[in-house]
Each structure stands twice: as structure tokens, then as C-alpha cells.
Amino acid sequence: MPTESENPILEMRGIGKRFPGVVALDGVDLTVHRAEVVGLIGENGAGKSTLMKILGGICQPDAGEIRIDNRPVRIHDVADAIRHGVAFIHQELNVLDNIDVAGNVFLGREPRHGVSWLIDRRRIHEQTEPYLKRLGLNVSSRTPLSRLSMAQQQLVEIAKALSLDARILIMDEPTSSLTIAETERLLELVLELQKQAVSIVYISHRLAELDHVADRVVALRDGRNAGELAHDGINHDRMVRMMVGRDIRSFYVEPTATRTAAYFRVRDIRSRAYPDSPVSFDAARGEILGFAGLVGAGRSEMAEAIFGVDGDCNGEIFLSDQKLPVRSVGDAITQGIYLVPEDRRGAGLVTEMSVRENITLPSLPQHSVSGLVRLARETETAERQRETLGIKAPSVETLVANLSGGNQQKVVLGKWLALAPKIMIFDEPTRGIDVGAKAEIYRLMRDLAAAGAVVLMISSDMEEILHVSDRVAVMHEGRITGVLERADCTEENIMQLAVGRPVAEARPPC
Amino acid sequence: MKKELGISVLLLLLCAVVAVLNPKFLSAVNLSNTANLVGMFGIFSIGAGLVIITGGIDLSVGSMFALAGVLLAMMLREWHWPWPVAALAITALPMALGVVHGVLITRLRVQAFIVTLCGLLIYRGLARFIADDTTKGFANSEGFERLRDVAKGQLFHLPSPFLILLVIAVIMWLVLHRSVYGRYLFAVGRNEEAARYSGIRTRLVIGSSYVVAGLLTGLSAILFAFYTNSISPSTHGNFYELYGIAAAVLGGCSLRGGEGSILGIVIGTTLLQVLQNLVNLLNIPSSLNFAVMGAVVLVGVLADELLTARRQKRKAALAAASREARHGTASPPAEK
Predict the structure, then answer these.
(1) CA A46 to chain centre
(2) Of A8-12, A265-269, A500-504, B39-43, which gets the smallest average pLDDT?
(3) How many domains does chain B have?
(4) Band of the pLDDT at A217, cuts 50, 70, 90?
(5) Which CATH class is domain A262-336+425-505?
(6) Which of B198, B202, B313, B323 to mutate to test the interface with A (most CBs of A within 10 A)?
(7) Is the pLDDT confidence value at A458 over 90?
(8) Residue A4 above 60 pLDDT?
(9) Most exposed residue of A264, A407, A482, A488, measured as fewest CB within 10 angstroms of its CB?
(10) B334, part of any domain
(11) Residue B335 banded pLDDT, cuts 50, 70, 90
(12) Domain A10-244 has CATH 2.60.40.10
């Protein structure tokens, strides 16, 4: 545990940064001690990324001073940052999946045969292996990266940082695409690295993780310091208060008590990931049924099968007692079954199109007369959704690419809400979305359920699963291993089911 | 709209320069001749643009012209088909080939470049084989004068291919910029996955663009056949697919898909034809023809990239400023 008396390894003092027309950072201070894990929190746009980009040499500050080991330094570019022992693990992994592990670790610094430009293949692998061992990554350095999971690829990035002798590691939302189990492993690794005297700046929206690993939490708001918490003072509510500058009352909306009989019944559908394990479950109107499990448990694929993405899902889907044909996405949409996909930018939105065009994309025929689109009708629908969802955009003609993650997610929602959903499936609805927008999305989900829709929510965020769901179905290798009532939803029970072990309180899915 | 504006300015500038250097440019004969070429090239270029907007490409157009031209001449002169039947068959042929391309691309997942490159080779070969590598022609068009008159005639002093282009451009403008189908074309071109998750039958949309392009190619093919009047199967239509692609790209279509406009494509076509005209009128050696065209396309696209980059920078600054303004109301006044 570091003490305040010890000299800090990093001091950033009065850092200021202006972009044309905006003050991104205004006199921000950040101190990091040796072997300290500092949690950096703040809503999107608070300036966390800019501050870290300055430290990582990606952009230059307009004001302020950076001291490393008590000596003032100027970090002009990434190479400078590396020279000072600063390494940056970006949220989106910067790995090349067409070359092997060793090639990634030593990219740009490949050991060569003498002065030639031929890669010394023996040495590059020899030098990589120790780092993999140190991180507990049990793969050969010759493995092509495309065969590794997201979590493993991230470890490769960390190996790269270690091979650069990084003493200050910046991790930007490192768990945003990891499963619950992988997240636990990563958090352990963070503590392990700390023991090895590495200092870590850890950016995350998942406050429980910071509770777990951070020695100190520093909050930014609107480009300024918004307070910090020492180890003993770290808790969820205080962190939220620092970030948003006020209490978010009822962050999670409690479920209403009444639940009707099974309305949406899924029988023996098979997804492309697990064609041999049919999935069945029931859900009632007015409930939010959470789907927990490890990544790769087949949750997203199940959702896609219900949504008709893979064509005929082989199983049967009933709404009240009526069997529905779902052989294509078009069928699902006709029946009022909608999916808010995990990959928002890839599958949820056409980001180079406007808010209006995105919202009406699935319902264009309703917005057209004899094949020609009626702009006025589209605008009307889009404006209505913008209002009800509180989409923060200058106008409905704004390109979706220019919106924040939370507002983009609202546009995806708007697409479907314009069509009065009966079944709404959310796949990782708040990934990468800041606290304020998260609360709004939870409220919208609850409103949707209250209006009589069935809401299915796939999430790898344990907090979200525990607090938002009325019931939780846990999946393991393509099967639902059990369903937990709200009262029985504990992290413990969910983890047990997620790894395929039975739990006494769990019930069968239907 | 800005893209069209930029290239229009370029076109007007070019016209002005040519007109000053050689007043013959503005003569009725020259203008009519240029309009005729713009018409023929514009019609199939719109098809090429449509395919490009979906993120695809069609390289087989030039060879289709040869195959269609040879067949049209043989149908009319050797097999003595009634001209409406022959015209219909020649329009249907590239559409059918478009269906084949579409199926290969969307169902069997072969890349459009490869499918249509193979088409380029196959149809050229077929054209030469069917014609026995001899030139086919229409002689004095006995028995199908009506078709010839439609293809080569004039109305209000305008060559009919140009008028046909105008009609097609208006229809295609409605299709691309006002219809549900057009919106889907842009959506699949920009993000096929998101379009599929919105319930759009993306494979049908992409595949059909090759069929529509086929239809326009078929119409152009008839006009080109009568324009040259003698179709040499080894050279007829050579490189025409590249004229189409160049026109579309000059007109603002992005080969990444999801971008482009009918107006842009028409202006792009016009620009290319004026360039050809310039080479002739200014006594530039015609061997330099392609080089001039290539250079202009390159400059046009580069200029557009630079302008886009500048525009985006400005937009980012504006967005940042508005974010600042919003934040300003939420928190105590900052410096400034």
C-alpha cells in the first residue's frame, strides 16, 4: 500500500487542453504513486480520455506540467511516452489478428538477424514467452492472434506493454468486452501487476471493479477535478455523486410486483453456436428477464435465433398461445419481436446516416406511399422518438456517428419503439455508456415492461443483471442451467450456474 | 449536394477553357455530338453508380456491350427477328447476366470484383466466338428503321440518347433519392449488417442492383451498337466499364459504398466526355486520351478528399463548441 509521503512516480499538474471551440481539460491534477492503482472515473466527455491521451503522448497539453520520477518531462509522441515507461491499453484493442502473438508483442521492434532486415524468429519467440507466463496466458507465442479470445488478445496487449518496461499502465475500460469470469481474472492480474511495482491508471464505468482494485479513485467532471476518494472511502454512491455532481435517485428502477402468466414462450430453438442444445424458456409481460452467463455461453446467438438472423430457428415461438413463424428478421419484425444488438455501431445503426433515417429504417414502408418515402412522415416519427427518448442531438438530421454512445443506443431503441414492440431483446444495452445515460436506459426498459412488453436483457455486467432483472436465466454452453427469482439472485448463485454447477434455488426455465 | 457543386464548377471551368481555346466547342454540331455521347455513357454509368453505392462493382459492362451488340446485329440482319423482339431480348440479356452476378455475389459470397472480372473475360470471349471474330453491322437498317431512328434520331434538336438519359436520370433520381428501395441501397452499402438487423432483405437489395445496372447496360448497348453501326467483337465497348466507374467516382460515389447521387454521376459522365472532346479539339495527341482522363479523375477525387477532410474538421469543431455550450449551462461558468 503506497503512502502519501512516498514520492509519486507521476504528477500531472494543472493540465489544460483546448480543442477548437471547447475546453476539454481545465487545470486537471493527477498524481500516481509507485505500485498504486488509481481509478479514473467520469461521464463520457468529462475529459478522462483526453487526459490519458496527453499522458500517452497522443495529444499535447496547452497548459500544465507533467513530472515523472520528480523530473519534468515533455511527452511529444507515443515513443516519448514509452521512453518514460508509460503504456496505454486502449479500449478498442490495437492488435493485428493476421499475425501471431510474438509478432504482436514485438511489433515495430522485431529482433533481427544481425543488421539485416530479416526477423530473428527464434529470438522473438524466446523473448515473448516469459511475458506470457508472467500474465498466465497459456498459449504459444506462435499462435495466430485470430485464434485467441478477446480477453486473451487483451493479455497480448498487456504483454506488449510489459515488454516495453512500462511502469505506468493506462487501462481504458479494459473489461468492457470481457465475460464475468474473464473480468475477475483481469482484476486479479491488475493486483498482481501492482505487486510487481507497476502503477496503473484504471478507467472504468463499472464502479464495482474500482471498488475491488483501486487504491484511490479520482473523478473528473466537465474537464475539471471533481474530487477523489481514498481506499476506505470508495463506494458506489459516492463515486456516482462525484461523477454527476448530484445524487442519481433511483438509479435502478425497482420492478413492479405484478407479473402475469407466461406470454412469450420459446421452445427448442437452436442457435448456430450450439445447434445441438435446444433452448426453451417462458417470459411474462411486464417483466425484465435477464440472461447472465459467460461470454460464449450462446446468449447473443440465442437472441439472434429468436430474431430470425440465422433464418429458420428450428424451434417454436409462441405469443400468448399463438405460434409465430420466424424464419427471417423480416418475420420477427412483423410479429413485434425486436433486437437491440450488442454491436451497436456494426449491427444496430448505420452511423453515416441521420437520426431520422436510422429510426425509420425498419419501418420505411409505413413511411412511404407507393414506394416513395414521405419525408414529412419520417421527420414526424423521428421527432417524436427524439422527444420521448430524450435523444440529445441538434436535430434529427444529425449523423448518428456524431452522437455519444448513450444517445446512439437511444436511436437504436427509437427504431423499435416507433413500431410498438411486443418482445424487446436487449443485448448488452449499456456497454460503453456513461452513468447518466445508463439510468435513462434502465428507466426506458422498465417503462417498456410496464407498458406490457416482454423485455429480455442479455448482460455481462453483474451489477446490471442483479439490479435490473426481475428474474435471471443463466446460460452455460448453450443451455439455460437455471432461472433465479429476484430474491435468489446473488452473484454467487449466478456464477455457479454460469459455470454449469447446480444451485438449489434455481428453477427450470419453463 | 456539395460534391455535385464542386464537380459542376470543375465542369464549367473546363468548358470555358475549351470554348476559349477553340470556339468550335460551342458549335451546334459539336455540342450535339457531345450530348449524344453523354447520353449513351450516362445511361449505363448510372447503373455502375448504383452498384457502387451498394459497395459492389461491375467490371463486365464493356464486354456486355460487345456481346449484346454482336447479337443484336445478328438477330436483325441474319436471323431476321422483328426489331421489337430483338430490342427486348438485348435489354433482357444483361439483366439476366445481372441476376447471375447477383446470385453469385450474394448467395455464394464471391466478391463482386471477381464475379464481374470473370464476366468481362467470358462475355468478350463469347462475343468473339459467336461472331466468328468478324465485324457485324446493320448496313442500311432495312426492316428495322424505326429502331435505328429511335437510337440515332433527334427531337427538339437534341440527340435521342441524351433525351433518353434525361428521362432515365429523372426516374433513377426518384428511385435512388426518394424511394424505399433507394434508401435500402444506401443502407446496405454503408452497413450491411445493420440493414439486415433492421429487417431489410440485404441480399435481394444488393443482388437487384446488378439487375437494374443490367437493364441500363442493355439500353446503352442498343444505342452504342447503332452509334458505331459496325461492331467489331474484340474492341467494341473496350474499357467502357471503366468510364462508368470513373464517372460515378467523379460524381461522388465512394467505392466503400453508401455514397453517391444520380446528379453527380450525370455530371461526372459529362465531365469525362468534355475531356475527350478537349483532347480532340485542342489537338492533343489522342494517344494521351486515357492519361488525361486518369489525371483528371485523380485530381477530382483528391480535391474531394481534401474538401471532405476540411469540412469534417470544421464540423468536429462545431460539435465540440455546441457540447461546450451545453456543458456551460450545466456547470458553473468556466473561464472563457
Answers:
(1) 18
(2) A500-504
(3) 1
(4) very high
(5) alpha beta
(6) B198
(7) yes
(8) no
(9) A488
(10) no
(11) very low
(12) no
Degrees to nearest 5, angle at CA A397 with A395 and A399? 105
Length of chain A: 510
**Is A21's CB within 8 Å of B324's CB?**
yes
DSSP state of A8: P
**ipTM for the complex?**
0.75
Tell me the range of A148-162, B116-130, B268-282, B284-298 where mean pLDDT is highest: B116-130
- Residue B33 is classified by DSSP as H
Phi, psi of A100 (to 5 degrees): -85, 180
Instruction: Using an 8 Å CB-CB cutoff, list chain B residues near A361.
Output: 183, 187, 194-195, 198, 200
- Distance in angstroms (rounded) separating the CA atoms of residues B108 and B36: 39
Determine whether B208 is exposed, middle or buried from the number of CB atoms within 10 Å of its CB (0-12, 13-18, 19+): buried
Fold match between domain A10-244 and domain A262-336+425-505: yes
> Chain B residue with minimal CA distance to A378?
B180
What pLDDT is recorded for position B326?
47
CB contact under 8 A, A307 and B323: no
- Report pTM: 0.75
Dihedral angle, C-alpha A134, A136, A140, A142, nearest 10 °: -70
What range does the domain containing B219 cover? 2-327
Q: Quick one: pLDDT at residue B332?
A: 36
A364 in contact with chain B, both atoms CB, cutoff 8 A: yes
Are B191 and A349 in contact (CB < 8 Å)? yes
* DSSP, residue by residue, A384-427: HHHHHHT---S-TTSBGGGS-HHHHHHHHHHHHHTT--SEEEEE
Q: Where are the domains of chain A?
A: 10-244, 262-336+425-505, 349-420
Pinpoint the alpha helices (H) of B22-80: 28-53, 61-73
Element containing residue A293 per DSSP (H, E): strand A288-293
Compute the distance between CA of residue B327 and CA of residue A217 in angstroms, rounded to an integer.
Answer: 23
Query: What are the chain A neighbours of B184 within 8 Å (beta carbons)?
Result: 364
**A180/B contact by beta carbon, under 8 A:** no
> In angstroms, what separates the C-alpha of A460 from chain B's closest C-alpha?
22
Mutate to test the interface with B, among A28, A44, A50, A329 (most CBs of B within 10 A): A329
Chain A residues within 8 A of B182 when measuring between CB atoms: 373
Is B123 part of a structural domain of the chain? yes
Residue B222 located in a structural domain: yes
Contacts of A362 (CB under 8 A, 6+ apart): A333, A415, A416, A419, B198, B199, B200
Do A213 and A184 form a contact (C-beta atoms < 8 A)?
no
